[in-house]
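Retro notes
What went well: the complex prediction finally ran end to end.
Inputs used:
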Amino acid sequence: MPELPEVETIVRALREGGRSGAPLPGRVVRQAHLYWERTLAAPAAEEFYRRLAGQRVDTIYRRGKYVCIQLDADILLVHLRMSGDLLVTGSNAGRLPAAHVRAAITFTDGTTLVFNDPRKFGRIWLVNDPQTVLSGLGPEPLDETFTPEEFHRRLAIRHSRLKPLLLDQSFLAGMGNIYTDEALHQAGLHPAQPGSSLGFKQSERLLAAIRSVLNEGIRANGASIDWVYRGGTFQNNFRVYRRTGEPCRCCNTSIERIQIGQRGTHYCPSCQPLMPSG
DNA sequence: CATCAACCCTGAGAGC
DNA sequence: TGCTCTCAGGGTTGAT
């Protein structure tokens, strides 16, 4: 499931070329097509086709888990959700990847940007101002200007447990189930620990752990699990995620799996004790 | 604000 | 082998 590192990997591939062919910037849209209309969040399909045609791709960047493709006049925003993927097919391919194509944008050079999404949860927006979609997002965890002091301040006013809090995109943008479990383990914090119970040192340690696992994930080109394969290798570095019953790499204690906020949560009971929050 | 449940979907894995 | 059943998982919405 694409989280920040996986989205970053995809963005870099689209921007710089690589697994998905030559770089996207500079190409001009000839035509778009939707194979599953609900993939398009806004605007209506007819307007989407009309406005997109003729626009040239400018810059490509990531905000939270969104892929942002800046065009001449508008910006194309893509959220991959559970199973989405973006790739570019070659000019002489003429065929789309067999599996689950929900949308395709063909350029004047004959290449096509394909949105593949087996579970149909992914969404695409074409808007003039990205803020109409992205305004609710919290800070970027890897942004250097986002300080431990600021992070601690945000934690201090939230009584929610750390697991659902870190998954809340308005609190912090980009974390998903994998990297949240991994970061909490690295920080030695129990997933049910209330955010407001953390002292400054613990907040600082948590932010460092978050950055550490995200950077590690990016370096590994993301994680490849389930049926969505991206060529990433971070799954080989999991310390707790999907390691239920296996020994903790730090202390050999058996990793446990619990439900917190409707999410499967993996942690080491020994390395991540629940601290009294009084 | 915190918590929970339902919903959107499909493929994988389990059970038979 | 092949069927049916359950469930994960991000995010949104609505209820308590």
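What we learned: The helical segments of chain A are 4-16, 45-52, 131-134, 148-156, 162-167, 177-187, 200-219.
What to try next: split runs per interface for comparison.
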